[in-house]
From TrEMBL, chains A, B:
HAMAP family: PlsX. Its EC number is 2.3.1.274. Pathway: Lipid metabolism; phospholipid metabolism. Transmembrane segments: none annotated. It comes from Acerihabitans arboris. The gene is plsX. This is Phosphate acyltransferase. The lineage of its organism: Bacteria, Pseudomonadati, Pseudomonadota, Gammaproteobacteria, Enterobacterales. It is found in: Cytoplasm. Belongs to the PlsX family. Keywords: Acyltransferase, Cytoplasm, Lipid biosynthesis, Lipid metabolism, Phospholipid biosynthesis, Phospholipid metabolism, Transferase.
C-alpha cells in the first residue's frame, strides 16, 4: 500500500476545527493508506480528538500554527502577515516535501497568492486556475474552470486553462479526447468578448485539443462538453448561480406541501415520494462535489467551500487524494510541454 | 377603456408566426383594450388567422414586411441591411407613434442596435440595458439587468442600470424604496472588478438610491435585494445558468422513477405528488417570466426569448402592456433627470 500524506488547514472556513477535524477522522477511517497533518491550534484541535480510536490517531499529526488568516481579510495584506498562519504552514509542508497535497477552506485570494508564491506555477502557466468537476444529466461529468482565481483573463490564460482542463477530463473523469468549449453568450463566432475570441483562435491551432467552440451557460449541466472554460469572475458567478438554484429546489422539495389538511396516509406517501426524488437529485447537491483544485502549480492545492459541512470537507479531501494518485501536476506539466510553443 | 396598441415582430424567433400568431390571438382574447399590429409576411401570417373569430380580428392588423433578420446574423451587417425587415418596420411603428410598445423574439444584437438608432436613448443613458423580473423564494420579485445588451460596461453605465432598475422595482413590482445591489464574487469591498467598484462609489453618492452593496450569485433567488445589477455578459450567463438548472430539475421531476416495477396505485399516487410539486415549482419555470425589457429608450421594446413557445411569447406581450400602462420610459426619464448631475 502506497502511503499518501495530506496537509489540512484545520482552522480555515466558517466552522474551523468543528468541521475539519471530524472530516479528517472520517477520511482516515475510509482510507487506510492516508496520513494527515492537521495544521492549526492544538488547543482547538486536541479536545476534538479525545474520543478517537488510537489506531486512527497513529496516522494523524497535529502541526501547531499560532494564527489564522481571516476569511474576509484582504489577500495582499493577509499574505504579507501570513507567517505562522495555519494556511501558510500547510503550504510550506508541501513545499518542503512533507505532504503531497493540501486542503483549505480558508480565504481564496490568500490561498491563491500564497500557493503561487510557495509552490510556484508550472512552466507555461501565467496564473493557476480553480477547477471543479460538475455532474451532468447524462451521468457524466464536466470539468469547469476558472472558478474565481483570476477575475480578469487574457486569451492566452483561457487557452492554458483549457489545456489543464483537458488533462483533468482525461485523468480524473476518464474521457478520451475530451471535448473542450469556451463559455460564451452565444454560439456564433462574433459573440462575446475579445479575450474569448483570442482563446478560440489559440485553441483551434492546437491539434491535440478537441476544441468544439462556444457554449452558452444553459448547457452547463447538459453534458455537451467535457471541459468548459471561462474567466474567474464568470466562473464564480456561474457556479454560485447553479448552487443557489439547486439549494432552492432541494429546500422547496423538502418543505413543499407540508402544511394543509391531509390524512396521515397521504402525508406518509408524499414524504416517501419526496425522499425518493431528493435521492435522485442528490448527485446535484453542491456538497457532493465540494473542493476546487488550484491547477497549474507544482503541487496539489484544493480549496474547499468556506461554508462546507463535514461531508463536503471530506469530499474535498478525496479530491486532493485523487489528484495525487493520478499525478495531476506532473501530467499537466507534460501536456503543457508538448503543446505550448517553445521559448528559445 | 384606454386603447393600447402594440406592434409585434411576427417573424422573429425560432418558430416565427407558428408561435407569435397564436400568442397574439391569446393576448387579444384576454385583453379587450389591446390592439395588435402584426408585422411580417402576410403569406405566412394569414393562413393562421383563417379560423379566428372576426371580433378578435377587428383589433388585429397585419403590417406587411418583405424580409426577416436571421437570428444568427451579425448585428452590424443585419442593421445595415435592415430596411423592409419585420423588426425594423415594427420599430418604425413606435417611432412614428403608431404603436406604444413592441415585442420581438428576433436577433438580440440587431434589436438593440436598431432600437437605439430609431427610438433613441433617454437623456443621461449611454446604452440601453435588457432587464427582466425574476421570481424569488419569498414570493416576491427581483429586477435583474443587464442581461446581454452590453457585454462590457463601465461604472457609470452600471450605475445608470441601477437607477433604471430601481424605477422598475417601484413601478412594476410595487416595492417602496427598493434595495439595489451589484452582483459580485464576494461581499467585501475589495472583491471583483474595477467597474463594479466605480459603480458602488457612484451609487453610494445618490441619496435616493437604496444601495445595499454587493451580492453573490447564489443570492439570485433568495430575495435579499429588489434590484440586481451586472454587466450584460455576466447577466446573460447568470440567467442562462439559472434557466438551465431549472429546466433540468423540471425534466428530472417529470421523468424520475417512471420505470421499475410498481403497482398501479403507487404509480398513480406518485404521478399526483409529482404534478403537485411541478405546480409548486411552476413560478420558477422560465416560460413564466419570458420577455426582457430594453430599458433606457424613449419607448418600450421587449425582447422575447428566441425559443419562446406560445405561452412564453404571450407573457412577453403582457410585459410590454405593463410597461406602457405604468409609463416606464417616462418615469425612468423623470428619475434620471432628478438624480443625474446636470451638464451645463
Amino acid at each position: 500500500m502506497i502511503r499518501l500524506t495530506l496537509a489540512l488547514d484545520a482552522m480555515g472556513g466558517d466552522f474551523g476545527p468543528a468541521v475539519t477535524v471530524p472530516a479528517a477522522l472520517q477520511a482516515l477511517a475510509y482510507h487506510p493508506q492516508l496520513e494527515l497533518l492537521l495544521v492549526g491550534s492544538p488547543a482547538a484541535i486536541n479536545p476534538l480528538l479525545v474520543k478517537t480510536d488510537s489506531v486512527l490517531l497513529e496516522r494523524l499529526t497535529v502541526v501547531p500554527a499560532e494564527s489564522v488568516i481571516a476569511s474576509d481579510a484582504k489577500p495582499s495584506q493577509a499574505i504579507r502577515a501570513s507567517r505562522g498562519t495555519s494556511m501558510r504552514i500547510m503550504l510550506e509542508l508541501i513545499k518542503d516535501g512533507k505532504a503531497q497535497a493540501c486542503v483549505s477552506a480558508g480565504n481564496t485570494g490568500a490561498l491563491m497568492g500564497l500557493a503561487k508564491m510557495l509552490i510556484k506555477p508550472l512552466n507555461g502557466i501565467e496564473r493557476p486556475a480553480l477547477m471543479t468537476v460538475l455532474p451532468h444529466r447524462q451521468q457524466g461529468k464536466t470539468v469547469v474552470l476558472d472558478l474565481g482565481a483570476n477575475v480578469e483573463c487574457d486569451g492566452a490564460m483561457l487557452a492554458q486553462f483549457a489545456i489543464m482542463g483537458a488533462v483533468m477530463a482525461e485523468e480524473i473523469v476518464g474521457v478520451n479526447n475530451p471535448r473542450v468549449a469556451l463559455l460564451n453568450i452565444g454560439e456564433e463566432e462574433t459573440k462575446g468578448l475579445d479575450n474569448i475570441h483570442q482563446a478560440a483562435a489559440l485553441l483551434r491551432s492546437i491539434p491535440s485539443i478537441n476544441y468544439i467552440g462556444y457554449l452558452e451557460a444553459n448547457e452547463l449541466l447538459t453534458g455537451k462538453t467535457d471541459v468548459l472554460v471561462c474567466d474567474g469572475f464568470v466562473g464564480n458567478v456561474t457556479l454560485k448561480t447553479m448552487e443557489g438554484v439547486i439549494r432552492l429546489f432541494l429546500s422547496l422539495l423538502k418543505s413543499s406541501g407540508d402544511g394543509g389538511r391531509q390524512g396521515w396516509l397521504m402525508k406518509l406517501i408524499k414524504r416517501w415520494v419526496k425522499k425518493r426524488l431528493a435521492r435522485q437529485f442528490g448527485h446535484l447537491n453542491p456538497d457532493q462535489y465540494n473542493g476546487a483544485c488550484l491547477l497549474g502549480l507544482r503541487g496539489t492545492v484544493v480549496k474547499s467551500h468556506g461554508a462546507a459541512n463535514q461531508r463536503a470537507f471530506a469530499v474535498a479531501i478525496e479530491q486532493a487524494m485523487q489528484a495525487v494518485e493520478r499525478q495531476i501536476p506532473e501530467r499537466i506539466a507534460a501536456r503543457l510541454d508538448a503543446v505550448l510553443p517553445k521559448s528559445d
